[in-house]
TrEMBL record:
Originating species: Hypholoma sublateritium (strain FD-334 SS-4)
PROSITE patterns per UniProt: SEDOLISIN
Signal peptide positions on this chain: 1-18
GO molecular function, one term: serine-type endopeptidase activity
This protein's name: tripeptidyl-peptidase II
Length: 634
């Protein structure tokens, strides 16, 4: 068994230290990780507003998370592929009876009748609908309403406290300080501002130099326009699924982001005629709708990209659309945890751990719970700055991704599009980790920085090159997100590769102390795929887009095809793939990226180098080699 590293950095210890509150026996439990940028506090929340309070109970045996996940995920483990059942996971990590009783007694003694409390199926959460006045008295805090210039609203408090004797039994309480810092996805800026591409039926969209007869016509312009044919040529993907009745592939989209049927058909008409009229299977989570009233690039571009390439690369594999959030609250990037398994639900018939919508929903959307078995692969192209997540929230959520891996699900997230910077290229202040205008400290992304999922960076076909030439790190419009977590410790599976990189290229560090975390933390991304010049159908035209949000569904598609081939020979899905990605045995299955970088925060960032690097991970997939190696595993 490989050495198990600590789950968290030492900084986690500071979270649980009891800080006396000036009121009663309460101690400070959480404060907001970062004040919301662009959001204005407009008023106190009315005292009689009803808040769906969720109290996350401290779980048992979290020290076993990495060990259990490694046991079923490492290619050299005798238990590889022997994924756990949901019942086994619940039994291992459920809170103790002492914890359940301690929190229950606190609430009852505070005047909340026992019949108002609901305990989750896995005993992990207690739910109670409480008035603002009740919540403020329980937590010794004040709730305010915040408004974004777009008109979006959220509620929250700056900090909250709990009784000292209860603190060790509580991970976090919501809604409180866990603020969704963005009103919507930052997708529009990744569109190339050119005239719409001409609709085509066959051949390249833009005529190129076809003087080299060895280059097929549909591959001539892959340095300018990426299509399905370009991706298949780059990664040698030549496989048609045969296990589609058993295999599953889910793609997450956040309302109001949604696809338009006509856009799918526009893309399919040009590149996959057999899919014209085919649609993803929608799973509507927390009152979600696949809306078509807001039609703009920013409302439809992400969904178009994810679905067109996910469906196109895995056809005829049916795609499950995990559409999340209603038109009142919108979606949060991890709400899909609500739907994928009942064992994670906050209360019977309710919600689960995750960044659920917290502003009171005026239309009373139904809350989803365990309405679908976790797909074998889930691709998500949304994220937030790690610095905007509280420690307890990030840890709790990351643990849930580990549990999904233990069940046999591959969780894929994009690594971000601003190099070593955060959303909108914002960097941190070295002194207080705040989000200032002139920050110089690198700003890693979350959930990409979680060690229990697969983070995907971006590459490009370099200008003037062909699909037969080596790719470089993406440096057109976007820069591949990558770096080192400020929360999570380095997992054992990547220690050798990351330490080799650090010793060869960051010792001594080229940047001042404090520019990035040098204490031995989780490094990302894990793998990469092309993220430049994607042709998509959106809002009735063909356009070019860029981003790791394109790379993520490509890698997810590759893993879906591998799962199909394994299922066809009587084996199971691969589940959590990171220990395999970093295994020396699998090194020949990746195209090493050795040029380019991911600048940000006024620096060149990091560089792509031989071996793993915090720009493109282990490289891009060589599908036939990767397929053969995965098929050889149990």
């Amino acid at each position: 068994m490989h050495r198990i590293t600590p789950f968290l950095l030492v900084a986690f210890a500071s979270f649980t230290s009891a800080v006396p509150s000036p009121r009663s026996t309460h101690v400070l439990h959480e404060r907001r990780a970062m004040e919301p940028v662009e959001w204005a506090k407009i008023s106190r929340l009315e005292a009689d507003s009803i808040l769906p309070m969720r109290i996350g109970l401290a779980q048992q045996n979290l020290h076993l998370v990495e060990e259990m996940l490694t046991a079923v995920s490492h290619p050299e483990s005798p238990k590889y592929g022997q994924h756990y059942s949901a019942a086994e996971i619940v039994d291992t990590f459920k809170p103790s009876e002492e914890t359940v009783q301690a929190v229950t007694n606190w609430l009852v003694n505070a005047g909340i009748s026992r019949d108002r409390l609901q305990l989750s199926l896995n005993k992990g959460w207690i739910h109670v609908n409480a008035s603002t006045a009740e919540a403020e008295d329980l937590l010794k805090t004040e709730y305010h309403v915040y408004m974004h210039p777009s008109g979006a609203k959220q509620i929250g408090c700056h900090n909250y406290s709990v009784p000292a004797h209860v603190q060790r039994h509580v991970d976090l309480i919501k809604p409180t300080v866990h603020f969704n810092h963005q009103a919507g996805d930052d997708f529009a800026r990744r569109k190339l501002d050119t005239e719409p591409l001409t609709d085509i039926v066959s051949g390249p969209i833009v005529a190129g130099d076809a003087s080299d007869a060895s280059i097929p016509a549909n591959l001539v312009n892959c340095d300018k326009q990426i299509t399905l044919a370009c991706l298949r040529a780059l990664y040698k993907i030549d496989y048609t699924p045969v296990s589609t009745h058993v295999n599953t592939f889910g793609i997450v989209e956040l309302t109001p982001q949604a696809f338009l049927p006509g856009d799918l058909d526009l893309f399919f008409k040009n590149f996959v005629p057999s899919l014209i009229g085919v649609r993803p299977t929608p799973v509507l989570i927390d009152g979600a709708v696949v809306q078509n009233t807001s039609q703009s690039f920013n409302s439809n571009g992400e969904s178009s990209l994810d679905l067109e390439y996910g469906m196109g690369l895995t056809a005829p594999q049916p795609i499950i659309l995990l559409q999340t959030g209603d038109l009142v609250e919108g979606g949060r990037f991890d709400n899909w945890l609500d739907a994928v398994d009942g064992s994670f639900c906050t209360f019977e018939g309710g919600d689960v751990p995750g960044e659920d919508g917290i502003y009171p929903d005026s239309i009373g959307s139904p809350q989803s719970c365990g309405i679908i078995k976790p797909p074998n692969v889930i691709s998500t192209s949304y994220s937030q700055d790690e610095a905007t997540a509280t420690l307890a929230y990030a840890v709790r959520q990351c643990t849930e991704y580990a549990k999904l891996g233990m069940l046999g699900t591959t969780v894929i997230y994009s690594s971000g599009d601003n190099g070593v910077g955060g959303r909108n290229n914002v960097c941190l202040d070295v002194h207080d980790n705040e989000d200032p205008t002139n920050g110089t400290t690198f700003n890693p992304r979350f959930p990409a920085a979680c060690p229990f999922l697969t983070a995907v960076g971006a590459t490009q076909v370099n200008p003037g090159s062909t699909v037969d030439d080596p790719e470089g790190a993406c440096e057109q419009v976007i820069f591949s997100g990558g770096g080192f977590s400020n929360i999570f410790a380095m997992p054992s599976y990547q220690a050798l590769a990351v330490n080799d990189y650090v010793n060869a290229h960051l010792t001594p560090s080229p940047y001042p102390v404090g520019t990035y975390n040098t204490s031995g933390s989780r490094a990302f991304p894990d793998i990469a795929a092309n993220g430049a010049n994607y042709v998509i159908g959106v809002d009735g035209t063909l356009s070019l887009v860029f981003g790791t949000s394109a790379s993520a569904p490509v890698v997810a598609s590759v893993i879906t095809l591998i799962n199909d081939a394994r299922i066809a020979i009587g084996k199971g899905p691969v589940g959590f793939i990171n220990p395999v990605l970093y295994s020396p045995i699998f090194a020949p299955a990746f195209n090493d990226i050795v040029t380019g970088g991911n600048q940000g925060c006024g620096t060149p960032g990091f560089n792509a180098t031989p071996g793993w690097d915090p720009v493109t991970g282990v490289g891009t997939p060589n599908f036939p080699r990767l397929l053969d190696l995965f098929k050889s595993l149990p």
